[in-house]
Amino acid sequence: MAIDTSLLLELAAATLLFFITRFFIRSLLLKSSRKLPPGPKGWPLVGALPLLGNMPHVALAKMAKRYGPVMFLKMGTNSMVVASTPGAARAFLKTLDINFSNRPPNAGATLLAYHAQDMVFADYGARWKLLRKLSNLHMLGGKALEDWSQVRAVELGHMLRAMLELSQRAEPVVVPEMLTFSMANMIGQVILSRRVFETKGSESNEFRDMVVELMTTAGYFNIGDFIPSIAWLDIQGIQRGMKHLHRKFDRLLTKMMEEHTASAHERKGNPDFLDVIMANQENSTGEKLTITNIKALLLNLFTAGTDTSSSVIEWSLAEMLKNPSILKRAHEEMDQVIGRSRRLVESDLPKLPYLQAICKESFRKHPSTPLNLPRVSTQACEVNGYYIPKNTRLSVNIWAIGRDPDVWESPEEFRPERFLSGRNEKIDPRGNDFELIPFGAGRRICAGTRMGIVLVEYILGTLVHSFDWKMPDGVEINMDEAFGLALQKAVSLSAMVTPRLHQSAYAV
């Protein structure tokens, strides 16, 4: 009997020990599998928000050096994960692309983009797919871009002649104003069959100011987005500014659409982009587009279509003015391929590898969107062994990837030559090479990627080929950044130009 009792006690103890051990092992495994990525502790209530400062992309890049390529931040009552290397970006935007295909709710989407009724902020679904499909077919896709190549050539001709007049009067060219005026007219011709601005003046300058304000405010880290319970206080005044700006854009878009409807008889048999979109309000997919959806889409195309490409071209010119040897080499390549008796045409671009390298280097060092538009996780997931909870915001620091010394040799230097040979020669900015993703990647890659590359290469190439560039006497070039959804120069580039082509080239 004693033996039986002892045996039973040993069996009971062994069983108890087994279950206790199993419980602790499971708890430890569960805990380890739910280990959040490292990151700063932040402050009570507001979390890491105060740590971002006025230049969030720079602050986050510095934090990543301490905490690693996948970093977790508590932002008010929300969670945010930041990817700062090509590998981390690939994990989120390729491997887990579908899980991060939606946008988080934010004031910009609500107050500027008609409650996310546009293509940029819309949820990943049927309406987003329809807007994107129509935009690709009739404006942003390869065939559509070919169809309106003549529009780009004509509008660029107007810009060259305006710059020629300034050079004859010995007046500087304010580069971003000139670019916005021209590019808004290019887009207006495609969407509305007319120039948006007939002459450069106060109206076009006001439009540029509106575009810059939108791209700046939409990039702010708004406290109300991260602590919704106090959003109504609008502590930073961001939401008041957004509401005012939205009313101005809505008036402009309403006027455009009303004038477009009134001139419908002039376009019979030759529909433009807006005609096509209006005709697809009742779509075969069953998804209905409202007037609000259409206004929101036009807002996307006019703002992102002008500001992002404009900023890259301005940065490129600034870098060449800072590094005259780069400008000289670009001129030599163009003189050899094109000569000086005619303007550059788009078919010349594949024959100008150094120009294309300059554009890639600008995309690397000065990406138009330093932090990609935020995404949010639909489900909990794991990245690099770290647990990412459901409803975590994702920010990919594109600026940090372009400045990563583990990826790029001497990243602070502007060296187009890095793309002419070696491992970087085949790198392409269209979203497949995560070392260079100025337009993002995955399902939510910028819809205007093709258009952006064409505009940057063609317009920058034409400006460089057509003129010699120099800073006004006594003026030093300022290379400071101004943070926003698009990365602006803090001080607009203003430069003197001198024509370098045969006079007949400017008359075409």
UniProtKB/TrEMBL annotation:
Its cofactor is heme. Heme binds at C446. Its EC number is 1.14.14.81. GO terms for molecular function: flavonoid 3',5'-hydroxylase activity; heme binding; iron ion binding. Pathway: Pigment biosynthesis; anthocyanin biosynthesis. It catalyses: a 3',5'-unsubstituted flavanone + 2 reduced [NADPH--hemoprotein reductase] + 2 O2 = a 3',5'-dihydroxyflavanone + 2 oxidized [NADPH--hemoprotein reductase] + 2 H2O + 2 H(+). The keyword Transmembrane helix applies. The chain crosses the membrane at residues 6-25. It holds the Pfam family p450. The keyword Transmembrane helix applies. Keywords: Heme, Iron, Membrane, Metal-binding, Monooxygenase, NADP, Oxidoreductase, Transmembrane, Transmembrane helix. Belongs to the cytochrome P450 family. Catalyzes the 3'5'-hydroxylation of naringenin and eriodictyol to form 5,7,3,'4',5'-pentahydroxyflavanone and 3',5'-hydroxylation of dihydrokaempferol and dihydroquercetin to form dihydromyricetin. This is flavonoid 3',5'-hydroxylase.
